[in-house]
User: Fold this.
Amino acid sequence: MYEISARISFAAAHQLIGYQGPCSNIHGHTWSLKACVLCDELNSIGIAYDFKELKRLLKDCVSRFDHQFLNNHPQFDGINPTSENLAKYIYHSIKARLPEYVKMKSVEISESEKYSAVYFEE
Assistant:
């Protein structure tokens, strides 16, 4: 089994409605995103899944969020755009676009060097 990952970053603001503390105010992050996929076999040239293809999927997925206010996006209608909810949304968005031979493993999203959330399914 091979685990392949790619990382990108993007900038976006959000506001945590109902949160007791400074994060209830509008604030921004440079989010760091890592997606991991699994493959059983290598292709004829020894690649499980192309890093650049995974990075392209990540970029396509988050391009609508870059330099935006996340609370205004329909993906977060009725839910807070927390790191956890963002990781779950990105996980399912990428999973839906992977070839059949590639399995989604996890998405990790970081608001800073200190804090991150990982979403995966068993």
